[in-house]
Fold this protein.
Amino acid sequence: MTDKVITQVSPWFDDREQALVTECLESGWITEGPKSAEFTERLNDMIGVPYGVFAPNGTLALVLGLLALEVGPGDEVLVPDVTFIGSANAVLMTGATPVFVEVTGDNFQIDLSEADGLVTDRTKAIMPVHMFGMCGDMDGVRSFAKRHDLLIIEDAAQAIGVHYDGVHAGAMGDVGCFSFFADKTITTGEGGYVTCRDEAVYDRLRLLRNQGRFDRGAYVHPAIGYNFRITDMQAAIGLAQLEKMPEILARKAAHLARYEANFSDLPDVYLLKQQPKSGYVPFRLFLFSPAGEALLNYVNENGVQSRPFFYPLHRQPCFASLRETQNLDDSRFPNSIRAHEHGQCLPIHPALSESDIDRVSEVVRSYFER
């Protein structure tokens, strides 16, 4: 066994990022400017939407999208019980209430059959989360939203580069929200993005993210807003990452295929399977096993950074008040609990080599072959 620790996250940077960031520094334009405008144009073209704006991170992208859709106090938003806590926190930041919904047992996406019984006259939106780089049943989500007259806020933080029936994640709802955090398929260190197709929604996004004004430098503010801008240095990194995206996707696909081959004969290891109509670009590799925490600890003790699946939202200490008002008993969320107790995330970032993938696989296999 080597002493090298294989990290959970590592960005794949080279001289392309360095050159574009140096351009910013030498130009003297480091706040949001020409590089941000170019990054916006390139993202919109890739995602297939007419409009998009930046936010400081994925959570604030969700806040911005919700506010632009006029979600607020008194409203409820259906959120899957298994997701990063930022999905629910964003709803709370608008004054609305997240309503936690059990997830499916195979791919841990929002369970629409469970959501059906949670719709009230206060329900305004549903937030499908494209978990680990795979879309859920977006045909079902859109049909569900139409039947109940709900808005769709796509949490596509984990799904850049993923398509559903030929349409990019984040382009199927009323707004789509992305993250460019360090662990995502492409990264700017921190950063978020909100997409939409409706011009009126786009105008509200522009107002809200820029202190309630359309034009920077103007001191007349027709609305209350926030400073949700990014920097041109972040955009420069993003442009380099977009240029490398075909290589990044190819590396991730090769890593996934190698993991699948290495684990194919292990009956106690389950990897997510590609769902009908959805592409799959794993930003982390989800591994499910009855060995649960014992396997997780073993992997970490043997030089591979792993982490557990998301903690179910209904169990979060900070949501104790919601547990009382929504009757969030464990018996309602067996799949969420099973996902957390038996699931873990293995490294699959593009900076890894084939030998790194084999090393991770060897550690996992050695647990079962002891």
Summary: Residues 273 and 293 are 22 Å apart (CA to CA). The first helix runs from residue 15 to 27. The chain has two domains: 15-101+109-243, 245-368.
